[in-house]
Amino acid sequence: MIFIDDWKALGEAERRVVVAAFLGWTLDAFDFFLLVFVLKDVSRAFSVSLTTVTEAIFLTLATRPLGALFFGSLADRYGRRPVLMAVVLLYPFFGFLSAIAPTIGAFLILRGLFGVAMGGEWGAGSSLVMESIPVSCRGFVSGILQAGYPAGYLLASLAYAFIYPVTGWRGLLMLGILPAFLVFFIRRSVPESPSFSEKRPHFSRNWRAMVGHHWKLALFAVVLMTAFNFLGHGTQDLYPTFLESVHHLSPGTVGGIAVFYNFGAILGGIILGTLSERVGRRRAILWAALLALAVLPFWAGADGIVALAGGAFLMQFAVQGAWGVIPVYLNEISPPEIRGAFPGVVYQTGNLLASANATLQALLAHHLGGRLGLSLGVVAALAAVTIAALIGRGPERRGERLHCG
Question: Cβ(14)–Cβ(132) under 8 Å?
Fold first, then answer.
């Protein structure tokens, strides 16, 4: 099979790098999505509205660019590997503390700090991977790396289905400490990027290069990633709430459906990422965006468990199929001297601009007479159309040599 051939083309050290970055992003997403399943519980525990609790998601997404810029700049100066180790220790720490927060204010602050640490993981991990593997394997590995996000969602779904009924929401969030143990594997088994040079530019010089000489590229990438984040979070964050509140499904059923559609997401990321090596990055993203539009009516308007699960599977196959191309696409278009910072900063700035997604969807649903499904569908449609329109006008640098300047 083509996937097996791609995996065999990687050397032993290269496979360890891929595994470490994949697990880092998987467990990062696991910590993030644990909260998505217990928004209603948190609102009851602190006696606040659901809209108030969604501000925790907003803060997590809004603070991620700070982490991407800070940790990305450190990765350009001191190496990808030590920075990856640092963020893998930090985000589980803040995730665990949020589980024992005494007030809603403390809870929101801790989720913001979690976002800072979370923002540093993707940039350091993706640049380490893309600089370490053969050119011919980039599309496949890009899909593998980004599949970590739905894989983390899948693990969170399982935890919600089987652990939440026993531990409650605080016990569930305490599981967020588990990713910290990954640092031992990284320290022992993962080498530094072979193309990394110790003579990194100073932080301010990196920043000037990004917003000065490369400002047009940065602007394009930020707008594209804003649309991507509206599509991703617009089809994920409030979907469990949609299943519970609109279709009145039990936590076990919601968790089961989430497991199923995250398998679709993982398949989509790997398949479209690998396909991008053959047809090009832009074309693969365009096809995925058009598929998301095609399945949108079925996804937002389905009724019954089977139809809901099928629509969600197809939607996440398309959404994460597009996302599966993003790690390699952003690294290939990145200016080499700031690759540790550029992919993560534009990605997480897109997160910042889309960070109010859950709150906006909740408010839109309120103004639509409580029709949460219609609200989810409107946001997803606008995001998919924007991606399709933008990607055809963007750069295509498949096979670009990835060096550090």
Answer: yes
Nearest by Cα to 17 from 80, 77, 75, 88:
80
Using an 8 Å Cβ cutoff, are 324 and 270 in contact?
yes
CA distances from residue 57 to 34, 100, 114 in whole angstroms, order as listed: 11, 17, 10
Neighbours of 394 (CB within 10 A): 17
Q: Of 335, 312, 319, which is closest to residue 403 (Cα–Cα)? A: 335
The answer to whether the pTM exceeds 0.70 is yes
pLDDT means over runs of 10, the chain (405 residues)? 70 87 86 86 90 84 87 84 88 91 94 90 83 83 85 85 89 86 81 65 52 79 94 84 76 81 89 90 94 89 82 92 92 81 87 80 78 80 94 78 56
Q: Sign of torsion, CA 178 180 182 188?
A: negative
44-70 exposure pattern, b = at least 16 Cβ within 10 A, e = fewer: ebbeeebeebbbbbbbbbbbbbbbbbb
Q: Which tokens go with 324?
A: 């599966």
Q: Name the E strands within 258-393.
A: none
HSE of 331, CA atoms in CB hemisphere, 13 A = 30
d(CA 367, CA 132) in angstroms, rounded, equals 49
The secondary structure of 101-169 as a DSSP string is -SSHHHHHHHHHHHHHHHHHHHHHHHHHHHTTS-GGGHHHHHHHHHHHHHHHHHHHHHHHHHTHHHHHH
Residue with the two structure tokens 């979690």: 114
| Residue 381 burial (C-beta neighbours within 10 Å; 0-12, 13-18, 19+) | middle
Structure tokens at 188: 């022992």
- In whole angstroms, give the CA distance from residue 259 to residue 142: 22
CA 314, CA 265: separation in Å to the nearest integer?
8
- Give the domains, in start order, of the chain with CATH numbers: 8-179+198-391 (1.20.1250.20)
